[in-house]
Here is the input.
Amino acid sequence: MTQHKVTARAPASIGNVAAGFDCLGQAFGAAFDLVTAQRCNGQTVASLGAVDGLVSILPKEVHRNTALRAAQAVLDKAGADFGARLDVYKGIPMSAGMGGSAASAVAGALAVNGLLPTPLCQDDLFICAMHGEAASADPPPPDNVAAVLYGGLVMIGEDGPRQITIIPLPKNLTCVLFHPALTVKTDEARTLLAADVPLATTVRQMRHMGGFIAGCFLNDPGLIAQNLRDGLIEPQRASLVPPFGAVKDAALTAGALGCSLSGSGPSIFAWVENHNLEVVKAAMASAFGAQNCAATAYVSPLSPCKAEIIIP
Here is the structure.
């Protein structure tokens, strides 16, 4: 039966997950965006309806709005003979390093896909959502989109959806993330990155990524703690988030397995063993306070959450 109105929910996400720049992404279920798509006959374009949540205004132009751009890509790829109006609820802060643009893109694509008589497959949705993500950063990084669409912790190869690997999530761990009252735009943060880095730095980071993934497969917190690190990108971006150094030191001293920027920042995340969660969370909050920087805490157990249709 053809649906005339579909709502999709998409979680926040953590790009890079410290060890894997543009290769690793983690879905983070502490915050969500919602997109409701309503079928509009007599047109074949995606348009913006109501905007609610943490913001009340979003770009109305398709090419500037990740949800609209992804939705339009779905309509075009399917050859739909109708359009869609999108109502967007932003539960994920913008320019926060929490994958808000990817969540809107995936939710927009998934909601409109639910209107199709023959929905696109997941891999086609990935391509459409990546097209939407390009409204935020072009070329679009794939880590957040893949994590939100496929769920949990993912590794992305060079060949797009055909090389997305779901990495098992270790047990009894929680992710705590603090979003400070700062703004970092992904495309601007990328301009700080050096085109070339020393070979030794690259090899060290390759070891960290391999060790981190192995730690997840082996459910080994010790191995994860040794390798949940970023010596490649983090040093180049740390200056964008002045409290970062103090907050990271506080988290690690309190017992976090690892702590780094979430995506390009300004949010800072840590993986923590469940029994140590409150201690690490309090230490990070205290460090932000000592830096006179307000920050909001988000907490979610490591879980395979992903975007889903919630109102068929």
The mean pLDDT is 95. The longest strand covers residues 24-40. The first helix runs from residue 66 to 78. Residues 138 and 182 are 22 Å apart (CA to CA).
